[in-house]
Amino acid sequence: MKIASYNINGINARLDNLLRWLKEARPDVVCLQELKAPDNRFPAQLLLDAGYHAIWHGQKSWNGVAILSRYAEIKETRRGLEGDPEDLHSRYIEAFINGVVIGCLYLPNGNPFPGPKFEYKLNWIKRLTKHAAKLNAFGLPVALVGDYNIIPTDLDTYKPEKYLENALFRPEARKLWTALLKQGWTDAFRKLYPKDRIYTFWDYLRNAYHRDAGLRLDHFLLNDKLVDRLDAAGVDKHVRGWDHSSDHAPVWVVLKDHLPDQAK
Fold first, then answer.
1. Which is the catalytic residue, given 6, 52, 92, 106?
2. What is the pLDDT of residue 259?
3. 136 is known to lie in a ligand binding site
4. Where is this site: Interaction with DNA substrate (predicted)?
C-alpha cells in the first residue's frame, strides 16, 4: 500500500502536474493539501477518470484538503477537528481505507511570529493531539499524513540559524510535535533515515530548489499498530522541478500489506 502526500498549492492551477505525477508514481492513496478551491470547483470527475475516487474539504482561495484512493469509494470518517467551533479553516479530513485510518492534515503555518496566527497554530496542534489520542484508543492502524508546517530538528532545514524566529521552527511548536510523538506516533522518514538530510519543500525565491535549500515540512506519523508495516519512504523531488510546480514535492511511504505473523 503506497500512501502519498502532496501539498499541491492550488489544485486547479496545477492539475496537469498532479495528473502527470499520479500516472507516473501510481500511489494507492494520496493526501492533498492547499487545494485553494471551494468544494464545487474540486476536479472530482477528472481524478475519477484517472482512476482515483476522492473526498475533499475545500475552501475558496485558501487551505483545503482531500484524500484520493485507487481502491474504491472512500468512507469518510471525519472532517475538521473538535475544540474550536469558530475555526472555519478546511485543514483536516479523515477516512478509513483498506483497513487503515488516514488523517489528511494541513497544519497552520503560524507566521508571522509572534502573533495571533502563531497562537492559532499552537492551539491547532493541541487539538490534533487530542484527536490523535482518540484515534489511538480505537486499536486500529492509523496514519496522520500531510503538511505539518513544522521543521522538527536542525537536520530538517538547510540553514537552521535562518529560521530561529520563524513559526515553522519555533521551539514552542517543536515541543508540541515531540509531545505528539511521545503519545505513540513514529515519524516514518526518521524511522528509516535517522541521519539523512531530506527535504520536501523548496521556496520559489532565491533559486532554492536548484541550490537544494530545502525544508522537511511534510510528514507521516504512524501509530504502533502500523509502524511495523513500514517498508519504504521517499520524496519525488524531481516533480518540484517541473514547470509551474508546487513549492512542495510529493512524498510517500510504502506499507507491507500484512505483517509476517498475520500472514500465517
1. 106
2. 55
3. no
4. 248
C-alpha cell at 101: 485510518
Judge whether 147 counts as a catalytic residue: yes
Active site residue 87: no
**Cα separation of 58 and 13, whole Å?**
15
Task: Check whether 260 has a pLDDT greater than 80.
Answer: no
Tell me the HSE value of 42 on the side-chain side, using a 13 A CA sphere.
24
Contacts of residue 172, Cβ cutoff 8 Å, sequence gap at least 6: 118, 122
State the pLDDT confidence band at 150, using cuts at 50, 70 and 90: very high
The C-alpha atoms of residue 175 and residue 55 are separated, in whole angstroms, by 32
Known catalytic membership, residue 193: no
Mean pLDDT, rounded, for 41-55: 98
The arithmetic mean of pLDDT across residues 145-160, rounded, is 98
On the CB side of 259, how many CA atoms lie within 13 Å of its CA?
Answer: 10
For 3, the enclosing helix (H) or strand (E) is strand 2-7
User: What is the residue extent of each domain of the chain?
Assistant: 2-258
Q: Is 16 annotated as a binding residue?
A: no
The whole-angstrom distance between residue 17's C-alpha and the CA centroid of its chain comes to 18
Cβ-Cβ contacts under 8 Å for 139 (sequence gap 6 or more): 225
Q: What is the pTM of this model?
A: 0.97
Type of residue found at 261: D
- Distance CA(192)–CA(188), nearest Å, equals 7
- How high is the pLDDT of residue 263? 39
* Active-site hit among 57, 89, 219, 248: 248
Can you say whether the dihedral through the CA atoms of 126, 196, 7, 161 is positive or negative? positive
Cell of 245: 510546480
Per-residue confidence (pLDDT) for residue 41, from 0 to 100:
98
Sign of CA dihedral 197, 198, 203, 205: positive
Closest CA to 5 of 188, 163, 135: 188
